Amino acid sequence: MFVRGVAGFVCAWALVGCNVDQATFYPQCQARTVTAFGDVSFDSSGGPRCPVTSPMITNREVLPAGSATAIACEDDAVCVLKMTGQIECLGQPPPGLPTTTFTQIAIGENDGCGVHMDGALECWGRKLGQTPVPSGVFKQVSVAANAHACAVAADDHVECWGDNAVGQATSPAGSFKKVAAASTYSCGLKLDGAIACWGSTGSLYLGAPHVDAPAPGTYVDLASDGVGMIAVASDGHLVRWNIATERLPEGPFVHAGVSSLGDVCGLTADGTAKCTSAIGTSSERFKEICMAYYPYVCGVRTDGALYCFGDMRGAKF
Predict the structure, then answer these.
(1) Staple partner for 308: which of 99, 132, 285, 298, CB 3.0–4.6 Å?
(2) What pLDDT is recorded for position 202?
(3) What single DSSP character describes residue 132?
(4) What pLDDT is recorded for position 183?
(5) Are strands 296-301 and 306-310 parallel, antiparallel or unpaired?
(6) How far is 231 from 112, CA to CA, in rounded Å?
(7) Ranges in the chain, pLDDT < 50
(8) What pLDDT score does 241 carry?
(9) CB neighbour list of residue 151: distance below 8 Å, 6 or more residues apart
(10) Which residues on adjacent β-strands are paired with residue 310?
(11) What structural domains does the chain harbor?
(12) Three-state DSSP class for 21?
């Protein structure tokens, strides 16, 4: 749509997939006022043709080498595990950040959880911080945006707790190596490479309650953005479900991440992060990456630095 105003033509893009949230952070989804006729060309009908713009790309070493061993992200914060096992967060993390030490952490919109050095779980925040955690020895935990969490125990079974309105915190049977919690459902990567999901996506998408899962196959990694899921198949290609996004980056990959806006990144065996076009590809090498709401990715570089790249204008740090 084009509107002639006092300052000139106002160009408004109508790209497939642009929504109100994306228009805040993606320039190609925003209206632009063209103040000079030299800035705009005209099509065969005589109407103005908007110039093409790209997102602002920012590369930033946020914390220096030797700072971090692991990372977790949510919409407004990035948290890392320091060499000491303590947590350091940037932005606006869930409240009540503990001073104890961990081997792995996960954060959501309102809550965070971690696995202590002895395998015990601890949670903090507005909801899960007020909820008893399962006892036992654990090796990995995932926190959803809507007040539930799941963890993989040392003997490979899964324990879930918190909000269970549609079965998202009903612990599944079987042996798992990783779990990912979304808003109203959860999925787990089994020891045999299959993926199982439980809960319901019916409140998120169309029709009656149901839970989606990827096609049967063998997978090596699994991640959630709080709504959708992304997995890495055994041949290294990415598989998505409950995510509306553009063409996926081409692998082969060993790990993956996904943001709440549907941006996707894959991490190759040599540590290269390749992402959807709004973010691009970094020349840095990473051990681990994570994504949140905004179109950028942060990761622990191979030298232990916290490094972020992409359009970071929405970052809270």
Answers:
(1) 298
(2) 63
(3) P
(4) 85
(5) antiparallel
(6) 22
(7) 1-55, 205-209
(8) 85
(9) 113, 115, 121, 134, 138, 140, 141, 142, 158, 159, 160, 179
(10) 58, 296
(11) 2-49 (no CATH), 58-310 (2.130.10.30)
(12) helix
By C-alpha distance, which of 174, 177, 179 is closest to 161? Answer: 179
Q: Are 252 and 237 in contact (CB under 8 A)?
A: yes
Residue labelled with tokens 């020895």: 137
State residue 96's pLDDT score: 94
Q: 141-153: b or e for each residue (b if 16 or more CB lie within 10 Å)?
A: bbbbbbbbbbbbb
240: which 2 tokens? Answer: 């998505």
27: cis peptide before it, omega within 30°?
Answer: no
pLDDT of residue 14: 34
Total residues found in the chain within this entry: 317
pLDDT of residue 211: 62
Give the model confidence (pLDDT) of 107-120 as tens digits.
998 999 999 999 99
What are the tokens at 102? Answer: 């961990």
* pLDDT confidence of residue 4: 30
Q: Would you give the DSSP letter of residue 124?
A: E
CA dist 122 and 136 (Å) reads 11
